[in-house]
Every structure is written in structure tokens, then in C-alpha cells.
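Practice problem 4.
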């Protein structure tokens, strides 16, 4: 029997998770997904099948339920874990902080405890550039910067999550850990078969742009016009979701090589783009005029941040393949395909 390189992927039916599944399969891994679909669309497994040729194992469980999760560890031997399962709506986390602390931290602790108990050697955590808070003078952030002030309970769960991982590492445990600090994932699979399924009105920029262009929303508000940036709007590092997915594969491969036991790594393109630039790119690639207006600043927004991706480049040999134009085009294809479904 061929030894299967099983990877546990918690939250693998979500936006970044589902794209990572396709990248893992392509790299020869066997992903086993634990997801209860509370933040994902139930058509995702069949959509993944259209890309990879089979439906991977989806186990419908909540990672906050340790006994239930343990059954999965009993059933499979894992060479690694990618832990995506978490809530991610910044605004909701401010309204309901305990929901975020309970779910995001309990899920992480349960998964780590079982990783220790079952001797799973490698662990990749979904972190965020939110851990930097508002950067100082230098907007291109490196991993060695001190963690900033979290603008939301959601952000705080990422800061605390990283602290938990560091403490586990310091305790001398066998687990090799990489915390990937995502910048702003956008786009969709180039096939248009999977993409983002925002629940309700999206908070994020790209689903609002494409959703407005397709007519789901009347208009999009650009939050703030008077920031100290080139055109007065906030600057982010938008990264194609498939490039981000591939960073997870590279992270697992790196951990499997046994070269390091704890790393935090930025995953961004290294390029900042303003909101107006994103809108301009959208209008160019879609040939649709977007109905947008300026509105007040959104509380808690960071003005400008983008990745220094040298560490991902050199340590993981990871380089983004897609441009901002590609990302926006794929997001738009996805929005159009979804409407035709
Ligand atoms: C936010 C979080 C980030 C988190 C991510 C998860 C903050 C500071 N950051 O990223 O930690 O990982 O969500 O989803 O909260 N915008 C508009 N109009 C809109 C929507 C967005 O102008 O309708 C602007 C925002 O003000 C921002 C930019 O677009 O300047 C990007 O916003 P968004 O997509 O929400 O991402 P972040 O705020 O960067």
C-alpha cells in the first residue's frame, strides 16, 4: 500500500482553505478536511471535485468539540496540519468578542493538544498582517517587527494564537510550526470553479467591488478619501488566493524537510495598491463602470501596509505568480460564473 501523506485541513471548505486543498492535491498530498460548513458553502466539495478529479475526505465537525475532533486523529495518521478554522469578520468580533475568543482560541488549543497527543510533526497556522497593527514610518513590514496593538478582538485572536504557538514551541514540544501572516487574499481559482462565498453583505473590498458590478449591491463606498497616501485612500497588499494557497504547500514541504521548528512568515506580494487603484484595475479588466462613492473612514482601518516577502521568497522559495490584474480578473470571472449557476 502506498503511504498516504495525509494533511489535516481545518476550515478547509472556506475561501483560502478550498483553494489550498487544490494546491495540496496537486503537490501529492491527501487533504482530510474538518469543517462544519458554518462559514462555507455546501457546494464546495463538488466544485473541488471538478478541479482535482475526486471529492477529498470532508469530515463535518466543529474544531471546538475536542472529542469529535479526536475521532479524526484516531482514523488518520497526519504528516501535517493546516489550521484555518476561525471566524474572520472584524466588525462582528467587536460586537461579540467572546464568540471570537471562544471559537478561534479553543479551536486552536484543541487542534494543538491533539497534534501533541498523536505526534503530528508539522503545523501551519493562519495568521494575518493584522498582528502588526498600524505600522510606523515604514509601511513595508518584516516579521521581526514587534507585534502591534490589535484593532479588534479578531486581530487579537491572531496575536494570542501566535503567542500560544510560540509557547508550545518553547516548551520543547516536537511540533514544527509556521505561522503564515496573510496580507489581503483576493481572486479565485483560474478555472472559475471555486472562489469566495461571502455570507451576507461582504466586509472585504473585492467581493464588494464585484458584487456591486454584478448588481447585488447598488453602490460601493470607499471608506475615507483623506488619508496620507498617494491618492488619499488606504493601501493594502492584495495577494491572489492561489499564490497564498501555494504558500501553504511550500510551508508544509519546508517543515517536512526538518530545517526549522518555528517561523512566522509574511505572505504578500510586496506591492501596495490603493483602493482607487483596485477600482481602476477592476474597471479596466471588466470593462464595467463601477458605481462607487467616497464615504467616511472605517474605524480601525490601518492606513497603509504591505509585506516584505523576502523571508517567504528565501526560506520557502515562494514567489507570487499572479498580478493584481490577474487577481481582479479571476474574482470577476468567479462572480459572473456564480450568477450563471
Ligand atoms: C481586514 C482586517 C484583517 C483581516 C481581514 C479578514 C483590519 C484592519 N484588517 O483586512 O486583519 O485579516 O479583514 O477579512 O480590520 N474598503 C472600502 N469599502 C468596502 C470594503 C473595504 O473602502 O466596502 C476598504 C477598507 O477600508 C480597506 C480596504 O478596502 O482600506 C481593504 O479592506 P478589507 O478587504 O476589509 O481588508 P482589511 O481591512 O485590510
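Answer key:
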Amino acid at each position: 500500500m502506498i503511504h498516504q501523506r495525509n494533511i489535516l485541513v481545518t476550515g478547509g471548505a472556506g475561501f483560502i482553505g478550498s483553494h489550498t486543498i487544490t494546491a495540496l492535491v496537486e503537490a501529492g498530498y491527501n487533504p482530510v478536511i474538518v469543517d462544519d460548513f458554518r462559514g462555507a458553502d455546501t457546494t464546495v466539495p463538488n466544485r473541488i471535485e471538478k478541479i482535482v478529479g475526486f471529492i477529498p475526505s470532508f469530515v463535518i465537525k466543529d474544531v471546538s468539540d475536542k472529542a469529535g475532533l479526536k475521532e479524526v486523529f484516531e482514523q488518520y495518521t497526519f504528516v501535517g496540519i493546516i489550521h484555518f478554522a476561525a471566524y474572520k469578520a472584524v466588525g462582528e468580533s467587536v460586537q461579540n468578542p467572546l464568540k471570537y475568543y471562544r471559537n478561534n482560541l479553543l479551536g486552536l488549543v484543541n487542534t494543538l493538544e491533539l497534534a501533541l497527543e498523536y505526534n503530528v510533526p508539522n503545523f501551519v497556522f493562519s495568521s494575518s498582517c493584522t498582528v502588526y497593527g498600524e505600522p510606523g514610518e515604514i509601511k513595508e513590514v518584516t516579521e521581526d517587527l514587534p507585534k502591534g496593538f490589535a484593532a479588534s478582538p479578531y486581530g487579537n485572536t491572531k496575536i494570542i494564537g501566535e503567542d500560544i504557538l510560540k509557547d508550545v514551541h518553547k516548551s520543547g514540544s516536537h511540533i514544527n510550526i509556521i505561522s503564515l501572516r496573510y496580507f489581503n487574499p483576493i481572486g479565485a481559482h483560474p478555472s472559475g470553479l471555486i472562489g469566495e462565498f461571502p455570507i451576507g453583505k461582504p466586509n472585504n473590498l473585492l467581493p464588494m467591488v464585484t458584487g456591486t458590478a454584478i448588481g447585488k449591491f447598488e453602490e460601493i463606498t470607499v471608506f475615507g478619501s483623506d488619508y496620507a497616501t498617494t491618492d488619499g485612500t488606504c493601501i493594502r497588499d492584495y495577494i491572489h488566493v492561489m499564490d497564498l494557497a501555494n504558500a501553504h504547500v511550500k510551508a508544509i514541504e519546508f517543515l517536512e524537510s526538518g530545517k526549522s521548528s518555528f517561523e512566522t512568515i509574511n505572505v504578500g506580494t510586496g506591492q501596495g495598491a490603493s483602493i482607487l487603484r483596485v477600482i481602476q484595475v477592476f474597471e479596466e479588466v471588466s470593462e464595467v463602470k463601477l458605481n462607487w462613492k467616497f464615504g467616511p473612514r472605517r474605524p480601525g482601518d490601518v492606513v497603509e501596509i504591505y509585506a516584505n516577502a523576502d523571508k517567504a521568497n528565501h526560506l520557502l522559495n515562494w514567489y507570487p505568480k499572479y498580478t493584481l490584474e490577474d487577481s481582479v480578473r479571476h474574482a470577476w470571472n468567479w462572480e459572473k460564473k456564480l450568477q450563471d449557476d
